[in-house]
Amino acid sequence: MATYMVQPVKLVDVKAGQFSNGLNGHSATNGVNGTHGTNGIHEMKNGLNGYAEEKPEQATNPVEDEDLEIIEDVADPHCVAENPVKISFQDITSAAFLIKSGIQCTPCQRSHLSDMTGMELYLKKEFLQFTGSFKERGARYALLMLSEEEKRQGVISASLGNHAQGLSYHATRLGIPVTVVMPIAAPIMKIQKCRSYGANVIVKGESMSEAKKIAMSIGKRRNLVYINGYDHPHIMAGQGTIGLEIVEQMGMPDAVVVPVGGGGLIAGVATAVKAISPQTKIIGVESDKCPSFTRALEHGGPILTPNMATLADGLAVPTVGYNAFATAVPLLDKMVVVREEWIALAILRLVEQEKCVVEGAGAAGLAAIFSGHLNEFKGKKVCLLLCGGNIDTTIFGRCLERGLAAEGRLLRFCVTVSDRPGGISELCRELAALGVSIKDIMHERAWIRDIFSVEVKVVCETSDWAHSEQLRKVLTEKYSHVVFNDVPMAIAN
Ligand SMILES: Cc1ncc(COP(=O)(O)O)c(C=O)c1O
Questions:
Q1: pLDDT at residue 489 in the model
Q2: Is 198's C-beta closer than 6 angstroms to any atom of ligand 1?
Q3: Where are the annotated segments for Disordered (predicted)?
Q4: Ligand 1 atom closest to Cα of residue 160
Q5: How many domains does the structure of the chain reveal?
Q6: CB burial class (10 A; 0-12, 13-18, 19+) of residue 239?
Q7: pLDDT in tens, 424-438
Q8: Domain span at 394
Q9: Count of beta carbons in the 10 Å neighbourhood of residue 128
Q10: From 96's CA, which of 225, 408, 458, 461 has a CA 20 to 30 Å away?
């Protein structure tokens, strides 16, 4: 029988006098439900909400197979379709105050890509958070807002990765037992990271929906609070703190471009930014492989949207959050859906031009600019959220190649040359003379009609789009049979 370990409850004693200043329940900082107003005092006094930042001991309390059985009617009381909760600006300022000591205020710097894109581009570098994404903000705030009893019992969530990592890291630092259920498709690197941050990790569920049901069922049986990674009001408020920092760091932007998964990030950021700078446009971006928010807008509310495999795995949420949708929609100016090639190209450009390693979700904003969807902001001040950097190394390698191909810098072609001695070397000389670098070359004779010919397949790298065009021209003029297999996207430089 498979067993899974649950962290034991091990909290370090709350310091004497912690509750003595009578600030219980001060409403301005209570967040959404206003019931846990003492939390800020913990954070203020100890920087750690009253708990020493230490790792819980090894697990003692195994989860048995029967714990994993799904309870069909289990529901999350914080995310109810019929009664969506909207967050307010005050929720976000409360969150900012509470999480300040445990979260990085990440840089928001003018980008080298400004000239290339024709915009005053600023990059908010959230991938520099300790666990590699902005998800820590919401996770820490939601944890700090738990009651003492809830902290003792522990929390549970289901996530493909970034929320799980943020929650695992901060729960462990705060001495709160944490369990995360990750679907079997979750990247191995993210599973290992959660374990290293001290979480009890259960890898189970064919999909996110199944993992979520399992997590909520365990939560119900074990009396653990389920923390939805995009729709819990405290999560949204925590993510909104990015918006406050953006305005403080770059003044009033003309637009803020926000990648959208379940919608918590855009809901929080839009609430913060619009309250201070109502004229700033809020733009949401999704991959065309998982356009759940766009479908929800068309439908008039969250609706199940089957997702396909995407480079932007952080955005692959089949149904957007009810609270997130209700909060974000009135503040949203535009939604953009981008093709994967643009995301791959954006990842490549961010590495080459900015030395930033970001995951697909984090590059979606730049992809929206490259795809021409935001041309109305040429000459304007635009902020892009580089919200995550947790990319699998093999996927990263593939992205770079795809980006090169999309830009027309990696080409694949097939050319028929004479089979007499020197035919192939002549082709190679031609490529060398053009400054084209051969990555791969292969030739075959057996299936060629003309017995005196050979077919040569080449994968090669050029310096840019114009260089590729020059290669095409030279080859088609010289050889009667040349076929380029990929049609690269024309990228304005
Ligand atoms: C890197 C990254 N960017 C953006 C998002 C989207 O956030 P939300 O689900 O709150 O819309 C996620 C969600 O996991 C993410 O991991």
A1: 61
A2: no
A3: 23-46
A4: 14
A5: 3
A6: buried
A7: 999 999 999 999 999
A8: 89-129+233-402
A9: 15
A10: 225
